[in-house]
Amino acid sequence: MAVTARPARWHRNLSAKIAAIPMIATALVVFVGGTAWTVVYSFTNSKLLPREKFVGLDQYERLWGSAKWLISIQNLAIYGAFSLVFALVVGFLLAALLDQKIRFEDTFRTIFLYPFALSFIVTGLAWQWILNPDFGIQAVVRGMGFESFTFDPLYNPDIVIYGVLIAGLWHETGLIMCLMLAGLRGIDEDIWKAARVDGIPMWKTYLYIVIPMMRGIFVTAVVLIASGIIKVYDLIVAQTGGGPGISSEVPAKYVYDAMFLSQNLGQGFAASTMMLLSVIIVVVPWAYLEFGGKARRV
User: Fold this and answer.
1) Cβ neighbours of residue 268 under 8 Å, at least 6 residues apart?
2) What local confidence, expressed as pLDDT, does residue 30 receive?
3) Cα(155)–Cα(128) distance, rounded to whole angstroms?
4) The whole model's pTM is what?
5) Would residue 35 count as lying in a domain?
6) What does the pLDDT average to over 77-106?
7) In this model, does residue 199 exceed pLDDT 80?
8) CATH number of the domain that residue 148 is part of
9) Residue 9's pLDDT is what?
10) Cβ(180)–Cβ(217) under 8 Å?
11) Is residue 40 part of a domain?
């Protein structure tokens, strides 16, 4: 009996592959091409307009010799670390509380999720008002008789980034909570019953059973938080404008200022390239461990 030959692998789902060609071409031209163009021109002395006068690593030497850039990196590291940890922890704790089938769960879920419906600009302006020492939290507490109370993070260069962090956490924690709650609701009820029968404490059930089962949810949450960290530019512009002085600068604002205010495209391209490099350093090892490990196991 004749054996029918299997079609070549590249023939499978051929119509879907053809339909994806425009998207792939757009990604290559716009994203990959634009990225390559940015990297190449970061080695030039382009000012208002791009020009092909290469100056080697001069732009990078100026970049890393700039106090504004160093402060931007420090602020992003502080904001990113605290935002990642607190958003995950607080979001998961809120989800665990709501998962106890409390009364008015829908109301609480809506209240916690509502800030995410606002833009970062609106969030920043709202918290600029709340943290304003003349009519915000400080003024309210002092009006209650506590005249020595001081809470003005946006006007203190040493802690201004933490004032921005408060607004960022308020904005994104509700979404993380909803993701975690969806993951908790997907846990089989028999697992909870078995843990109770075996006398396993609730915290151990979460730590050693539930959280490992929600690994995919946590990965998704980390990706969303990371995108919020990048968009901290909006919060900075709305709340502080980079001040006091340059104490709340972030890399994205540095790039914008270099390219559009200082009209120094070469410096802006160099800063953009360093931001891209930092993303690659984080993403590539994670992607290798996440997907390369699965391929080896298969």
Assistant:
1) 255, 256, 258, 259
2) 85
3) 10
4) 0.86
5) no
6) 91
7) yes
8) 1.10.3720.10
9) 64
10) yes
11) no
